[in-house]
Amino acid sequence: MADEIALAAVAGAHGIGGEVRLKLFAQGLDSLKRHERVRVGDRVLTLASLKAAKQPIARFAEIVDRTAAEGLRGLLLTVPRGALPPLEEGEYYHADLIGLPCEDASGAPLGAVVAVENFGAGDLLEIEKPGGRRTLVPFRDGVADLTEGRIVVDPEFLA
User: Fold this and answer.
1) Is the pLDDT reported for residue 20 higher than 70?
2) The whole model's pTM is what?
3) Which fold has domain 94-154?
């Protein structure tokens, strides 16, 4: 499902009524609230409610008990790419960065983006260099810039 974008993952069950805890990949609950139905693993489920918490709590209409909720642990909540709002200038979806080639300012290849992480201080690009070694680089102006379908990286930041 290449056209599906992951907005969250199910971290586990919450309580006995079928609710689940979520790990959000998007900026906030609003990114989920705009979608009535989401794909969870290989099922399409109806998002019945969302509650703000350290780990947001979701209820799906089709999931009615803790056992069913536990069965969702580790699964991604995705939506079709076309269901996402249009991007403003300078905005991007993490999924759009994965696979982009990385080069230095002169155009010499440095590798490719294989993942985007965010541990709270901003996005980090995981770059796989030729030979398979991987490194994390801050996705910040002057360090790693998105330019015409590629990432221009300052080689000083490659470990």
Assistant:
1) yes
2) 0.69
3) SH3 type barrels. (2.30.30)
